[in-house]
Amino acid sequence: MGRAVEQRRAVSRVQYFDLLRVVAIIAVVMLHVSITEWHELTPDNPRWDDLAVFGSMLRYCVPVFLMISGALFLNPERDVTWNSLFRKSIPRLLLLYAFWSLLYAVLVVYGPGGSRDPAEFVTRFVTGHFHLWFLLALAGLYLVVPILRLIARDRRVAWYFVALAIPFAFVFPLLTRIPVAGELLAEVLGTIKLELVLGYSAYFLLGYLLSTCRLSRRAVIWLSIAGLAGLVATAVGTVLVSHAQEESDELFYRYLTINVAAVAVAVFVLARAWGERFTLTGRSLGVVMFLGANSLGVYLIHPFFQWLYKQLGFETDTGPVWLTVPVLTVLVMVPSLLVTVLIRRIPRVGKYLGS
Q1: Where in the sequence is the domain holding 194, given as residue range(s)?
Q2: Which is nearest to 332 in space by CA: 131, 160, 177?
Q3: Global pTM?
Q4: Is the backbone of residue 88 left (phi > 0), alpha (psi -120 to 50) or beta?
Q5: What is the pLDDT of residues 7-48, one digit of tens each?
Q6: What is the pLDDT of residues 201-249, one digit of tens each?
Q7: Is 89:78 a contact under the CB 8 Å cutoff?
Q8: How far apart are CA 86 and CA 97, in angstroms?
Q9: Sign of torsion, CA 185 188 189 190?
Q10: What is the Cα–Cα distance from 334 to 348, expressed in whole angstroms?
Q11: Domain count, the chain
């Protein structure tokens, strides 16, 4: 009986990871669809507020992807070796970056309206398209996986790492924008230079810790309430700061903020709670696993279809925000998914370029 329970938990765990991938990739596409027009508007435009709400609801997407990776790579039951990291995982990410950065550089520089300037092409190829930063960030985390696995072995040390990251990585950077006091805080932080807990490593550890710890129903409820509060704080903070600046301000949109982290944690634990109670079967299981397996490909490809629709004159400003954003999200996701599937079927190289 005990073995059967453990097997069911393993199945549920895989399923909720796939479910998280699906939720996160939809959020990524919708975020990029909505934020394009948001950047072009000023806060005094009525459409700006609606687009700001969309952006506020979706910022959890990248942290959730990082938490999934952390839950997998820091799991002591997973065989993560130096060879697997430095001969497979990291080179694969760098190959993806080089390939897709090259394609997008060609598209932007030599496509319609491009400058055809070789210097710009080289710059865009090296720096990458706006969304490809995630591949380099993930590669950076893979570099420190051997260290993070050692930290994760002792749960007290791992939680201590997260506890340090909360103020230094997620809270203090927000406070540095406060007049006078913020400047003093920034100077003090610059002197301390506690950089060990900065960056995305806290999300990696959080993913592992939250996927393996015991979570009571009360804990899930309180974390969900904190996530809801984080979502409200993201929206309200963005609106207030942007209106004060009279231009779009992404201070509360940053992935390394306590408000966004709270939402990401809530989404993660709710998915885990769902996975512990329910099991997908049949067609629904197939759909979720299919979408989850192709989520990275959709991430890599979807900006092309955003660009294509822009060339055709179809953007979110063609109608009401609450209609055009979801519609355009679907119209971007579906062909991105189809192209991902086609690329992965290319003999020998497809599995390296589409996922």
Answers
A1: 2-353
A2: 131
A3: 0.92
A4: alpha
A5: 444 444 478 999 999 999 999 999 999 999 999 999 999 999
A6: 999 999 999 999 999 999 999 999 999 999 999 999 999 999 999 999 9
A7: no
A8: 16
A9: positive
A10: 25
A11: 1
